[in-house]
C-alpha cells in the first residue's frame, strides 16, 4: 500500500520545464501567428509587414457582421464611440473594421463624401498642425509634403473626405501602429491597420457617402 501511495503521489508532481520549453511557451504567447488577412503583403509598392496581432485585441479585427441601418449600401459609417468603421453591404450586412480616432478636441462628426482615394499617398500636414508642431515644417504644403512609404503617417492608402465640395482635411488612412487601434490618438483622422485600409480602399467607390457618429464624451468639430 505504501508503495502504491508513493507512486500515486509521484504522479501528481510534474517534471520542471526546461529553459528551452519555457522560452518557446513565452514566444507563442507574445508572437501569435497573424490571421491570413493580417499577413505580410510583399507585393505592395512598399512591402507591408505582417501585423503584430499581440498588440490588437481580437474585437478590433476585420469581420463581416449583421448591421441594421437605414443608410444605403456603399455608405461608410464611422462609429466614433465604439471605435468601429462599417462599410455597408446589401442584405443587412457590413464589413466592420477596428479604428483609431481623433483624441479629445480633434475628433469630428457629420455627413460628407469620400471624394477620392490614393494608394501610397504623400502627406502634407495642414498649416494649423505645423503651427502646433514646428518640427513638421519640412513636410508642409509649401515644401511638398512627405513622400510615400511605410513611415508616412497616411500609410498604404488614404480616403479623402470632402463636404460641400471642399476638403475637410480629415482622412481615413492606414497606420503601422497596431496598438493605436481602438484608441483616441490621432489629430482627427480615422486610422486603420494597413491591411484593413487596403481592403477598404478596394471596396469603396469615389463619391461614397460617409457618416461620422460623434462621441458625446469628447469635444468634436461638426462637419455639415
TrEMBL record:
Keywords: Acyltransferase, Cell shape, Cell wall biogenesis/degradation, Glycosyltransferase, Hydrolase, Peptidoglycan synthesis, Transferase
Lineage: Bacteria, Pseudomonadati, Pseudomonadota, Alphaproteobacteria, Hyphomicrobiales
Family: Belongs to the YkuD family.
Biological source species: Mesorhizobium shangrilense
Pathway per the UniProt entry: Cell wall biogenesis; peptidoglycan biosynthesis
UniProt name for this protein: L,D-transpeptidase
Superkingdom of origin: Bacteria
Its EC number(s): 2.3.2.-
Active site: 173, 189
Amino acid at each position: 500500500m505504501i508503495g502504491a501511495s508513493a507512486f500515486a503521489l509521484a504522479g501528481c508532481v510534474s517534471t520542471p520545464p526546461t529553459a528551452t520549453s519555457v522560452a518557446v511557451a513565452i514566444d507563442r504567447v507574445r508572437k501569435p501567428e497573424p490571421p491570413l488577412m493580417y499577413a505580410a503583403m510583399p507585393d505592395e509598392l512598399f512591402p507591408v509587414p505582417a501585423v503584430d496581432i499581440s498588440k490588437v485585441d481580437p474585437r478590433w479585427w476585420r469581420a463581416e457582421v449583421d448591421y441594421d441601418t437605414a443608410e444605403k449600401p456603399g455608405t461608410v459609417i464611422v462609429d466614433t464611440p465604439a471605435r468601429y468603421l462599417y462599410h455597408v453591404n446589401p442584405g443587412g450586412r457590413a464589413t466592420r473594421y477596428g479604428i483609431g480616432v481623433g483624441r479629445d478636441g480633434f475628433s469630428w462628426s457629420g455627413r460628407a463624401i469620400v471624394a477620392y482615394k490614393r494608394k501610397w499617398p504623400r502627406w502634407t500636414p495642414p498649416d494649423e498642425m505645423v503651427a502646433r508642431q514646428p518640427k513638421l515644417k519640412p513636410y508642409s504644403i509649401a515644401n511638398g509634403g512627405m513622400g510615400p512609404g511605410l513611415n508616412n503617417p497616411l500609410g498604404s492608402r488614404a480616403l479623402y473626405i470632402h463636404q460641400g465640395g471642399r476638403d475637410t482635411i480629415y482622412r481615413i488612412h492606414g497606420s503601422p501602429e497596431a496598438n493605436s487601434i481602438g484608441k483616441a490618438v490621432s489629430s482627427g483622422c480615422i486610422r486603420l491597420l494597413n491591411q484593413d485600409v487596403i481592403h477598404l480602399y478596394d471596396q469603396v467607390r469615389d463619391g461614397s457617402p460617409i457618416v461620422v457618429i460623434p462621441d458625446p464624451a469628447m469635444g468634436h468639430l461638426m462637419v455639415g
